[in-house]
Specification:
With 371 residues, the protein is an alpha/beta fold. The chain folds into two domains: 21-264, Aspartate Aminotransferase, domain 2 (3-Layer(aba) Sandwich); 268-370, Aspartate Aminotransferase, domain 1, CATH 3.90.1150.10. It is 40% helix and 17% strand. The chain contains 13 helices and 15 strands. The strands form four sheets. It has a seven-stranded mixed beta sheet, sandwiched between helices. The longest helix is centred in the last third of the chain and has 22 residues, at 268-289. The protein is globular. The protein binds pyridoxal-5'-phosphate. The site of pyridoxal-5'-phosphate has 12 residues, from helix 3.
Length: 371
């Protein structure tokens, strides 16, 4: 049977996103799961992931976890917190920070939230005061790129404060890892979470954790869920040399492996970051030229996704704009702000400068309310 890979539109949504033909082709087999060939592939994936951030990663290890990215965040939160005498401080300025707090509270973990506005970065003075004042806080969680708005949070400063106060640190870098350089060991972060379908440019199906080995070793018996037991998954992967505890998303893992090879071929994270930054610049300049205003001040804007305010025109209706763009080959993302209506355009995935120029043309043609 001959299969044509079709691409009816580009996904400008941060996960699932537009993938290469090679990544899609890697899934065109009924891949087996319970044998050494597959386990070796998993070990290779884990090794390559660990080499991506650079620096001395000898204290770190990786764990892959089935499910969407949120499942992996939940597995870390639910496995890293001690049963008693653990308290989590969450720095939130968007939906994904709020979600970490919701997960923790659902798991009956003692949780405090320092919430900034969606368009502002966390107040670091308040953060430091909270850690000085409340010695019962044992862990801190923060989001790297808050995909709600595309704001880039100051994780270097957050890590410096958390570590100076001797707290364990979880960074949700779901939409940042692989697309923005981050010196994980230099910042001394304990747990970094990301997933297959973001900047590595794979398809959805699992997430991964880059964690300090000695921290992970303390998590035995702490998990509040059997299937999301991070320690359980890690010890199985270590002792079984790439074996998952339960059915693994084999096709997704093969696609992810291909995506890792393509990332290396592109020149690693620095080259990918440069491409995303260029995509971002073309979109922002083009959209501002058409009269759209970005939500996030330029100095805090990440190269991952940009949120725009809708046009102030009584004839504008988002679903109609969305459909007009989709007909022209581009799928964008509705907003996720609590305070204001917005829409978002992603800059990540197998998309390039020429695609971004085409997008701006398509946006101009789709501005039905001006015609
Ligand atoms: C995508 C994303 C997640 C996970 O979302 P899922 O829908 O569960 O994959 C978590 N945090 C951030 C910052 C994200 O961008």
């Amino acid at each position: 049977m001959k299969t044509a890979i079709s691409r009816p539109y580009l996904l400008l949504t941060p996960g699932p996103l537009t993938t290469s033909c090679g990544v899609k082709e890697a899934m065109l087999h009924d891949w087996c799961t319970w044998d050494e060939d597959y386990n070796r592939l998993v070990e290779d994936v884990r090794r390559r992931l660990l080499s991506l951030p650079g620096g001395d990663m000898s204290r770190y290890t990786t764990v892959l976890m089935q499910g969407s990215g949120t499942f992996t965040v939940e597995s870390v939160v639910g496995s890293m917190m001690p049963a008693k005498e653990g308290k989590l401080l969450v720095l939130a300025n968007g939906a994904y920070g709020d979600r970490i707090a919701t997960i923790a509270r659902t798991l009956r973990i003692d949780t405090v939230v320092q919430r900034a506005k969606d368009v502002e970065i966390p107040d670091l003075t308040l953060f430091e005061q909270a850690l000085s004042r409340d010695r019962s806080i044992t862990h801190v969680a923060a989001v790297h790129v808050e995909t709600t708005t595309g704001i880039l949070n100051p994780i270097v400063a957050i890590a410096e404060i958390a570590k100076r106060h001797d707290r364990r640190l979880l960074i949700d870098s779901m939409s940042g890892f692989g697309g923005i350089g981050m010196d994980i060991s230099g910042m001394d972060i304990d747990y970094v979470v990301s997933s297959a379908n973001k900047c590595i440019q794979g398809v959805p199906g699992f997430g991964f954790v880059i964690a300090k080995r000695d921290e992970l070793a303390k998590c035995e018996g702490r998990a509040r869920s059997h299937s999301l037991d991070l320690y359980g998954q890690w010890s199985q992967m270590e002792s079984g040399k790439g074996k998952w505890r339960f059915t693994s998303p084999t096709h997704v893992v093969h696609a992810f492996y291909q995506a890792l090879l393509e990332l290396e071929k592109e020149g690693g994270i620095p080259s990918r970051e440069a491409r995303y930054r260029n995509n971002c610049r073309i979109v922002q300049e083009g959209m501002e030229g058409l009269g759209f205003k970005p939500v996030i001040p330029r100095q805090y804007q990440s190269p991952i996704i940009t949120a725009f305010y809708p046009p102030q025109h009584p004839g504008y209706h988002f679903p109609r704009f969305y459909q007009a763009l989709k007909r022209r080959g581009f799928v964008i993302y509705p907003g996720k702000l609590t305070e204001a209506e917005t829409f978002r355009i992603g800059h990540i995935g197998d998309i390039h400068a020429e695609d971004m120029h085409q997008l701006i043309k398509a946006v101009e043609e789709s501005m039905y309310w001006t015609k």
